[in-house]
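Deliverable D4.2, example record:
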Amino acid sequence: DDVAAALPVTHAYATVALDYTKRHGVFRFTTSDWQEYLLNAGDAGQMHEWIQAINLASARFSSPPLPAPIGSSR
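Output generated by the structure prediction step:
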């Protein structure tokens, strides 16, 4: 497992690569510094699963943590 070769998910997003027509199941991964990668999933179903998982991970790592709840002591 080489962490240096991993793509950063913070502030990244994935979308269907509608303009790429050479293969089916291709989606675009865009990093926070606007680098784009075309990734090929096995089929449309797997592509949508990857897009959903990447965007969920990105949202999770990109958003700040919620503040602690404020309670009342009566």
